[in-house]
Every structure is written in C-alpha cells, then in structure tokens.
Amino acid sequence: MATAAMPAQHESESHGGENFLTCSKGFKSWAFTLDHKRIGLMYLIATMSSMFLGGALALILRAEHLTPGATLPLAKVQNFLGSLIPSWSAIEATPLTNHDVYNQLFTLHGAIMVFLFIIPSIPAALGNFVLPIMLGAKDVAFPRMNLGSFYLWIVGFIFLVTAILTTGLDTGWTFYTPYSTNTTQTSVIAATLGAFILGFSSIFTGLNFIVTIHTMRPPGMTWFRMPLFLWALYATAIIQVLATPVLGITLLMIAAERLLGLGIFDPSMGGDPVLYQHFFWFYSHPAVYIMILPAMGIASELFSTFSRKPIFGYRFIAFSSMAIALLGFLVWGHHMFTSGQSELLTIIFSVLTFSVSIPSAIKVFNWLATMYKGSINLATPMCYALSFMFLFTIGGLTGLFLGALATDIHLHDTYFIVAHFHYTMMGGTLIAFMGGVFYWWPKMTGYMYNEFWGQVSALIVFVAFNLTFIPQFVMGSRGMPRRYYNYLPEFQVYHVLSTIGAFMLGLGLALAAVVLIVSLFTKRKAPANPWGGATLEWQCSSPPPLANFEETPVVGNPYDMQSVVWDAENECFVNRKKEEAPQS
Amino acid sequence: MHDSLFFQVPNSTFAPTVDGLYYFIFWISVFFLTLITSLMIIFVVKYRRVEGVEAQPSPGHNTLLELGWSILPAFLVLIIFGWGFAGYVDMRSPPEEAYEINVTASMWQWNFRYPTGAVSGELHIPAQKPVKLIMQSKDVIHSLFIPAFRVKQDVVPGRYTGVWFEALEPGTFDILCAEYCGQQHSDMLSKVVVHNNDPSKTDLNDDPNFETWLEDASDPIKDNEPLYESGKRITEMLGCVNCHSSDGSKKVGPSFKGSFGTTRNLQGGKTVTVDENYIRQSILDPNSQVAQGFDPKMPSFKGTIKDEWIDAVIAYFKHLKKE
C-alpha cells in the first residue's frame, strides 16, 4: 500500500505486465479456459455473430415486404439450396412455396434473436466479463459450470439452427399448439430440444451469478455498495433460475405430445391448446425481463459515469429491479387477452400489467435526474445510452396501449405489437448492449476505438431504428396483422418506409462492428480508466490481469465520481492522490 | 366519421371507445416523451463537459420527488386501466337479442352459417343490429379480426369462443386471420358485408337488404335461371373461389375452367377422369384424390353443402368447359 501515485502502477501494468489475453496461448487455452473474462469474450463473439445472422434474416423479411405480393424468389432459392443437399430434398416431398420459406424465415429470425442473442447477450457476454471484477472477486463461484454454460449454448445453437434449416420449422418462435404438435410437418422436437438446452445454459449462468454475488463479495462490498449493473444481473439471475425450468417442462411436454401421442394440448384428445400458452408465457414473459433488466443496469452505469455524477436514487433503482423481477412473474396472461381465457383472469392480468410500468418509469426519471448538473461527455457509449432512454421510453409507453383491455383487443397480433417489442427488445436491450460493448471494449481488448465513427454509428442506428418501427405502429393500429407473407395493398407505403429504415439500421450496426474490429488493428492502447468510472473494473489494468486484482481492492462507494480525476497529460482518469482522498 | 392517422373509419359501437382510449394514451405518451426528451436535450446542452469544469454537486436522492414520480404515474395508469376495463366489459357482454351466426374457421378459410341454414364464405350482417358470432375451429387456432369494428377473438379448436358487435354503417370491410395458422395464414381473408337496415336511405336501395340476401343464400338455386348460374353463386358463397379460379389460372387448387372431362394425374401416380363422381368426392372427401402438383389442403364440405348444390356446381364445371 505504499504507492503514493496509483497511476504509475497502472501504466506499468497496462503496457508491460501479462494480462488475461496474453497469459497463455493456443486453441486449448481458450477451449478449456475457466477464466470468466475469456468465457465472456467467447460469449460476446458468439452472441454478436447470432445477432448478425438474425439481422440478415430480418433484412430478407423486410425486403420481401417491399410489395404486397411476392417480391423475392424465396422458394426458388430455397428449393435450389435444397437440391444441393440430398437429405433436404428427401424430407420435402413437395417443393416449398414462397409462403413456406417466409414462414420459416420469421421463425428462424425470432428463435435466433430471442434464444441465441438477446437472452444471453448482456448477462452471459458482458455480465460474465464484468460481474466478478465489479464485485472485486477473482472469478465466478463455479468456473467450470460457467464454461459448461458456454458449451451448452454451442450445442443448443447447433440443435436449433440445424433443426430449423434442415426441416424448415415454421411454427414461429412461440411453438403454439396445436399447430406445432399435430399439424405442421416440420421437426418441432429437434428445435424445442435446442431451446431446452439453451435454457440450461441460461440457468447455469444465472445460478453462478447468484452464488457469486452472495458468497464472493470482498470485505467492504456490502449489498448497497454494489454497482446497479450487479443488482440488475442479480434480479435477472433470479428470473433465469426460477422461470427457465418452466420452459424446459413445457418443451418436454410438446415433445411428449408429438412422440407419445399424449393429449395434453390436443383438443381432439381432450387437451387444451390454451394451456400451452399459459405454460409458454409463464416463462416467456419473465424472460422479457431477463432481456431488459441487464440493459437497465448498463444504462445506470453509463448515465452515472458519463455525467460524472453519482446515480440519482440508488436505492429506488436497486429495488425497482427487484420489483420488476417479482412482478414480471405475475403478468404473463397479458399475452392472451384474445385467447379465450376467462374474462376475470384477463381483467386481473391487466391490472397487474400496469403495476410493472411504475418501476420502469422510476428508472427513467432517475437516469434523467442523474444527468442534472453533471459534466456530460457525449462519448459513444453515452450516445447509445441516450438513444436507449428515448427508444425504451417509447417501448414502455406503447405498452400502456397493450395493457389496456379495450385497445389491446384491437392491437393484439398486429404490427403494433411487433413495433412495441422491437422498441423494448431492440431499442432497449440491443442498444444498451451496444452501449455496454463500447463502454467495456477498452477494458476487454485493451484498445480504444475511433470515437468519431462510433458516434456516427450511434446516430445512424438511432435514426434508422425510428424509421423502421414508427411506420409499424401506424400500420398495426390500421389493421395489419403480424406474420403475414402477403398483405393488403393499402399498407404498402408503411412497409416500404420500414424496409428502408431496416436497411439503414443494418448499415449502422455494421458500421459499429467495423469500428470495433478496426480498433484491434490500429492498436491504440487503452488506459485503465478511459471514461472515469468509479466501479472496481476501472481499477485494474486494461485488459485486466488473469486474477483481476493483484491485491484485494479497496471497496468504496461505486458512484463516488470524485474519487477519480482527469489526467490531461495521459488522457485518462486516475485515482485522486492518496493525500487528497480521505483514508478509510 | 373519418379515418385518422392511426385508424380506419370506425364502424362499430365499440370503435369510438377504443379510438378514444387510444388517443388518450397517445397524448399522455406524447406528453411524457416530450418532457423526457426535452429535459434530456437541455441537460446535454447545458451540462456538456467542459475541460477543467467539474460536475456541480446536487442531492443524490430526494425521497419526496421520487415518491412523487412513482405515485403520480400510478394514478394515470389506474385511469387507463379503468377505461380499458369498461370497454372490455362492454365487448364481452352481448345483448340477449343479438342475432347469432355460427363461424367455423379452418386452414385457411372462414365459413359462416346463419339460423336459416344459409352458409357463406363472407360474413353478411345487418347494420345497426347487434350480431353475435359463435366460433369454433376445425384444426388449429385462428383469430377473427375485423379492424373496422376494432374486434378480435381467437378461434380455438375444441371449444366455442364468442364475439359480438353492432355495425354502424353499410359497406364492405376486411376480415383477417390474426393468429398464425400455417402456410397461407396471410391469405385467410374474407369480407364482412354490412347491409343497409334503414329504409329511409334510398340511395342504398340498389343493394339487397340483409333479409333479401339471407333468403337468396338459404336457397341459392333459383327456378328462373340456368343451373350453372346457381352453381357459380354457390362456389362464391362457400368461398371455393378463394382457392380455385374460373379463368384457368393456378391458385392453391386447380382451376375450375376446362377441367371437366379431362384426365387428371393424382398424387401417388394414379390417374382419374374429372367427371361427376370425381367432383362430388373432391367436395366431400377432398384429400382422397389430390391432383399432382398441389398440396392436400382443402377442407371437407360434408355437412355444409347440400346434394342439389353439388348438382349445380357440376353444371357450372360443364358450363366452364364449353366457354
């Protein structure tokens, strides 16, 4: 503890010492790594690849909607591809039509984005990297389980994608019965098995995070000294562990129904297809909060760091995460207002749904108050954070239309819903994820990216996003149902606008990817603390050493922005000198 | 009534409630979005980082403010809930005197049956009279969606679901399927024809009123016209024309035109002559003899179509052969 000037030590570490990337080399050192940072990085590459795959499919779908009828020769291409691989053409006795291919594409888009990208994106990729360091721990509680989670993800990916590609699954990512159990010719079992395995991957991550946060906090890291990102990950992990098994059970029941001919959901054998929807949404609604809570956590970190202000209303934000996790379990029935469930149930679910809107609103107001009287730096991560706040607010407010019964009856299963959940899942989670990636990129790779082009990507993504999805609100309330290959000509103008937006959006995200990849080649060294964050991950060098900290870090207030000051000479933030800082 | 940015012309008694609540939430949303965005922009401009200037101190929390912005929105959402609840109760409480029509959904068509025994592929209703639909599905879940009426209800196999409405103005409006139901989900369209019910509206006297239409539909075979004309009417009534063209073009199923008397290749390699018996069997048990190049997708019309209607349909086939 003799170092009077902390920065000198960091300088020497980041330029000379071994870090987690350089400490060992070779394929095996990655494939069998137990280091949470390497696993996080592998997850990052895996989920971002899934995002670009799912995004490419979205662009094909959008391009198809340029005209009301057939636009692209979908069936021709698919049948040609099928003819190249004998096993495909054997399964498809009759050639596919454009309708079939379209239905497969939106199923694939939804399944990839939900199961392979959004759910693991923030917790498993960024969370894995950041959580132990933020906490001041050397690793997660169960490093082997952590690696197991990643391999389960890989296996799940292979199952899900090959199942959908080779058999042309066309049920939508929701697998609604009885279409999925006795009508469709496609292999639901392999795909549901894929989703089942991915569920375990998600449970492993969640369990690990809960145990790590409970047992591995260093001295001084009390619950209310945890950064809000950790509170968000903790709330998320609870949902992952409690809700995901229900999805597993449900998918097994689907498999049993198809294989053994049990009549759980099949009305011709006395089953109830609406029961399936209850099971499915009992998981999939809480899963929405698995997707959005970590995004809110990232936003809390970004607003605080880039405003150089302590987060406003820390406890309200922390408790609102827990409130959302709890209430999120009680509102699944709002996906089923038109399904034929009992009227009383419908009314109860409507009331409960509105209760979730309050904790979300609290967070937005608190982020806003955090910026008040701050010193706001519009660096790339902050641009994404501001974009997130605007888009997520629209996502939240349009939820009011859907929670209200009279309006939901009209809007259910239209493009209004499609726009609403893209505003929350993409405008919310994906944008916050991008903000988080840009925020922690210097920490993860040790390199700074080009700030200007990063900001340009954030701007393009923001404008293009609104152009893509605002027309969908309009056409939805005018009566355009979702999952439609053909559509009535009166909706064409909205579809064309949306498609133009989607391609710009693709361009913006591709630019963001280019900015990040280029930084690996320009090799501009990142300082330990480029943004002025006061949480613990900014105390260790960029990239961090294998064990994260040379010695157990001193834990203070995670939002004490005055503990770090700008060092103009080295263009980075450094700890305030010991003599100035109050000693503990 | 006019159409607005977000809505088609409202044409049911519920529509004003739905639209009113929609615009109420819309303006609340606009207010909050504007508030949040302007504060965001003001803060970003006013407090943007200037080198050498540190952030100014301000309280880290303010219980009164935080409670305020938790409780005030709670009141607003309670109002929204109450409004939506009232509208919903209305939608789910059909009046006793409502005119009942049975609906059967199947992949991918709608079938409407009236108390007189009439059937149709399009929904015909009188204006300004409550109508109740009692719906069931033959296969998977569908959802009846009439945007102009702002109503939607899933149609579930193995149980009845119901919906009611009262149309305001005569006209023709879209019916769409809103729950994904497989290959031709997006083509599972139909129309609702609202008939004039007001004798004082003389400009609409050319259209048959609902009673006249119902009489026609209950007995589509007219004595004073060629049988094939009746057959043509029946194919339109039952929605056959959604999948079978009468001009030789290929739709979901083979065209009616020019097929009578020809030899048809079936799936499985057999061939059959398109004669009276083939047509009859194809209507009653369609998937027993599926033409090559087509999918076995046609639902059976057993119980829906009467024997003498089949005679008329066969006459229509023969007539199209001659044309």
Structure report:
- The complex is a heterodimer of chains A (584) and B (323).
- By secondary structure, chain A is an all-alpha fold.
- Chain A is built from 18 helices and four strands.
- In chain A, helix 9 (188-215) packs antiparallel against helix 10 (228-260) and helix 12 (314-327) runs antiparallel to helix 13.
- The longest helix of chain A is centred in the N-terminal third of the chain and has 38 residues, at 98-135.
- The two termini of chain A are 13 Å apart.
- Residues 1-16 of chain A have low confidence and may be disordered.
- Chain B has 323 residues and is of the alpha+beta class.
- Chain B is 33% helix and 19% strand.
- Chain B has six helices and twelve strands.
- Chain B has helices spanning 15-46, 63-91, 210-218, 227-237, 276-284, 307-322, and strands spanning 99-106, 109-113, 119-120, 123-126, 130-137, 142-146, 151-155, 161-166, 171-177, 190-195, 263-265, 271-273.
- At the A-B interface, helix 6, helix 11, helix 12, helix 13 and helix 14 of A face helix 1, helix 2, strand 7 and strand 9 of B.
Can you give me a brief rundown of this structure?
The complex is a heterodimer of chains A (584) and B (323). With 584 residues, chain A is an all-alpha fold. Chain A is built from 18 helices and 4 strands.
Chain pair sharing the greatest interface: A-B, 92 and 87 residues
Give the termini separation of chain A: 13 Å
CATH homologous superfamily assignment of chain A = Cytochrome c oxidase-like, subunit I domain
CATH homologous superfamily caption of the largest domain in chain B:
Cupredoxins -  blue copper proteins
Quickly give the structural class of chain B: alpha+beta
Could you describe the largest sheet of chain A, including whether it forms a barrel? 2 strands, antiparallel
At the third CATH level, what is the topology name of chain A? Cytochrome C Oxidase, Chain A
Largest sheet of chain B: 5 strands, mixed
Radius of gyration of chain A: 24 Å
